[in-house]
Design a protein that fits this description.
The complex is a heterodimer of chains A (about 110) and B (about 375). Chain A is mainly alpha-helical and about 110 residues long. In chain A, about 35% of the residues lie in helices and about 5% in strands. In chain A, helix 1 crosses helix 3. The radius of gyration of chain B is 20 Å and the shape is globular. The chains are: A mainly alpha (about 110), B alpha/beta (about 375). Strand 3 of chain A pairs antiparallel with strand 16 of chain B.
C-alpha cells in the first residue's frame, strides 16, 4: 500500500487520508466513518472497514479485537425506495403489532 | 480542576466550549462516546428559521447570521448550503395559519414568502404537488443545511486551540456538590469544577438528577435514512408538519430525511424499525415518484430531548452554578451557534445580549408555556 492506494472505493478515500485522520486522533472506525464518509457509500463499509481497522492497528498498536466495527445499519444491501413503498407489512406501530405471515416468511422470527 | 465542566460533546457542548474559550475561560467537555455520537451526529443537519414562536424565530435567525460567517471564523468547510426550506401546506386552514406565521416572521425581518402551487412547481419541478396533496407552502431562501460532524469538529478543534480540554470516551458517573465547587466523577478520576453545564441531550434529565435538579424532558426516538448519491435534483429542504416528513439533498448528493411516528413511546431506543422504512418510502415516493428507483443505503435512529412546549431549556437552575442547555426537541443543531454565544455571556457576564429568560426552567413552574407548533420528524 502507498499513500495513493484507494481504501474506500465508494467515496474515493486514500490510504493517506485515513492515516492522517488516525494521526489526528480519530482512532475508532465510527469516527473515521463520520469524518471521511468511508462506509457511507453503496458498500456500507464492506470493503473498507477491515482495511481501516488494520491501519488503526498499525498506527496505534491496538489489537484488532479492540477496534470495534460500526453498527451495521439496515437495509442489508441497497434497496430501491419503491420496493419498501409497495409493502404492506408494518401496521400502525410495528412494535405493537403481531407479525404477519408475510413478515415472518421474509424476516423470520416469532411474535413476542 | 477546570473552571467550567460541560457535560455532553455534541454540537452544543463543543460550541459552548469554544465561546467560553474565546472569553478566556478554561472549559472541559466530558463526552461518553466520540464527539457528535448522540443526537448531533444522527440529525438531518437542517437549519430552519420558519418557526411559529418568537423565541424560536429570533434564536434561529441569529444562529443563521453566525452560520453565514462561521466557515471563515473557524477555518473549516462545514458544507453549509442555503438551499432554503419549503414548508408545504395541505389544507386551506393550514395555509391560513402559515400566512399568519409568515406575517410574524416577516415582521421580525425574515425573508420568507407564501408560495402558490405554480410558484412551488417552478421552484422544485421534481415535486409532485398532487401526490403531496399540497395547496401551497412557505419558502425561506436563507434556511439550509450544514454537516453536523464538521460543525462539531470545527468548534471542538478551535476550542482546543484556545485552551479548552475535550475528553472523549469519558462518561460522567456522578456529580458531587461540594461547598463552592462540583466534583465531576468519571471512571478514571474526579475533577473539580466551579461551574457545570448540562448539555447531555437525551441524558440531560439523568445528569440533572445527579445534583437534584428535576427536568421535565422526555427522550423520543426519531428515525432517518440516507440514499445513494444523485446529481443535484432538489435544492430546498422539503417539510410537512401534517405528514411529519422532512427530506433534502446534501451537497454530497445523497437524499437524507425522516418521518415522525406519532405513536412512538418515550424512551431511549437507538434501534431501527421497519415501520419507519415503509412509512418513509411510501410518503417520499408520493411526494417525488421518481425516487421509487432510488436506493436506500441505510437507516438509523437518534433521540430528541423533548420538553412540554417543544422549546429548549436554557440558563440557570435552582442549584447555583449548575446551568442547563438542553430540551431542544429536535432543533439543537440549528440553534447551537447562537445558544453557545448567549450561554457564554450568561455564564461569564451574568446577562445574555438577547434575553433568554423566557426559555428558563422557571417557565414550567409559572405555567405560562406557549407551545412551538412548527415541529417535524
Amino acid at each position: 500500500m502507498n499513500d495513493e492506494t484507494i481504501i474506500c472505493r465508494c467515496e474515493d478515500i486514500t490510504y493517506k487520508e485515513v492515516a492522517d485522520a488516525v494521526d489526528e486522533g480519530y482512532t475508532t472506525l465510527d469516527e473515521i466513518k463520520r469524518k471521511l464518509r468511508c462506509g457511507m457509500g453503496p458498500c456500507q463499509g464492506r470493503t473498507c472497514m477491515r482495511l481501516i481497522a488494520r491501519i488503526i492497528r498499525e498506527k496505534t498498536g491496538r489489537h484488532l479485537d479492540e477496534i470495534l466495527m460500526p453498527t451495521s445499519r439496515p437495509p442489508e444491501k441497497p434497496v430501491p425506495l419503491g420496493i419498501f413503498a409497495s409493502y404492506e407489512i408494518a401496521s400502525k406501530n410495528a412494535r405493537n403489532c403481531k407479525r404477519s405471515e408475510q413478515f415472518r416468511s421474509i424476516f423470520g422470527g416469532e411474535d413476542d | 480542576m477546570t473552571d467550567i465542566a460541560i457535560i455532553g460533546g455534541g454540537v452544543n457542548g463543543c460550541a459552548l466550549a469554544y465561546e467560553l474559550a474565546k472569553k478566556g475561560v478554561n472549559a472541559t467537555v466530558f463526552e461518553k462516546g466520540y464527539l457528535g455520537s448522540g443526537a448531533t451526529g444522527r440529525c438531518g443537519g437542517g437549519i430552519r428559521q420558519q418557526f411559529d414562536t418568537e423565541d424560536n424565530i429570533r434564536l434561529a435567525m441569529e444562529s443563521v447570521k453566525i452560520f453565514e460567517k462561521i466557515e471563515k471564523e473557524l477555518g473549516y468547510d462545514i458544507e453549509y448550503d442555503q438551499g432554503g426550506y419549503l414548508v408545504l401546506a395541505h389544507s386551506d386552514e393550514e395555509a391560513e395559519k402559515f400566512k399568519k406565521n409568515v406575517e410574524l416572521q416577516r415582521s421580525m425581518g425574515l425573508g420568507v414568502n407564501f408560495l402558490e402551487n405554480n410558484e412551488i412547481h417552478a421552484l422544485v419541478p421534481i415535486l409532485d404537488l398532487e401526490g403531496a396533496r399540497a395547496v401551497g407552502g412557505t419558502f425561506c431562501q436563507t434556511d439550509g443545511y450544514a454537516n453536523p460532524f464538521k460543525v462539531t469538529e470545527a468548534y471542538a478543534k478551535n476550542a482546543e486551540r484556545l485552551g479548552a480540554e475535550i475528553k472523549t470516551f469519558t462518561e460522567v458517573k456522578g456529580i458531587k456538590k461540594e461547598k463552592k465547587q462540583f466534583g465531576i466523577i468519571t471512571e478514571k478520576e474526579k475533577i473539580k469544577a466551579d461551574v457545570v453545564v448540562n448539555a447531555a441531550g437525551c441524558y440531560s434529565k439523568n445528569i440533572a438528577e445527579m445534583v437534584g435538579v428535576n427536568l421535565p424532558n422526555k427522550p423520543y426516538r426519531h428515525e432517518i435514512l440516507a440514499t445513494e448519491i444523485l446529481k443535484p435534483v432538489l435544492k430546498p429542504m422539503i417539510i410537512s408538519f401534517k405528514d411529519g416528513i422532512y427530506f433534502c439533498q446534501h451537497k454530497t448528493g445523497q437524499i437524507v430525511g425522516g418521518i415522525g411516528n406519532p405513536d412512538e413511546p418515550s424512551g431511549i431506543n437507538p434501534s431501527s424499525s421497519f415501520w419507519f422504512l415503509e412509512k418513509m418510502a411510501k410518503t417520499i415516493t408520493r411526494y417525488i415518484p421518481a425516487f421509487k428507483n432510488l436506493n436506500v443505503l441505510r437507516q438509523w435512529a437518534g433521540m430528541y430531548d423533548v420538553t412540554p412546549d417543544a422549546r429548549p431549556i436554557l440558563g440557570k437552575t435552582n442549584v447555583k452554578n449548575f446551568f442547563v442547555v438542553c430540551g431542544f426537541s429536535g432543533h439543537g443543531f440549528m440553534v447551537a451557534p447562537v445558544t453557545a454565544k448567549l450561554m457564554s455571556e450568561l455564564i461569564i457576564d451574568g446577562k445574555s445580549s438577547i434575553p433568554i429568560d423566557s426559555l428558563s426552567i422557571d417557565r414550567f413552574k409559572k405555567g405560562i408555556i406557549r407551545k412551538e407548533g412548527a415541529v417535524v420528524g
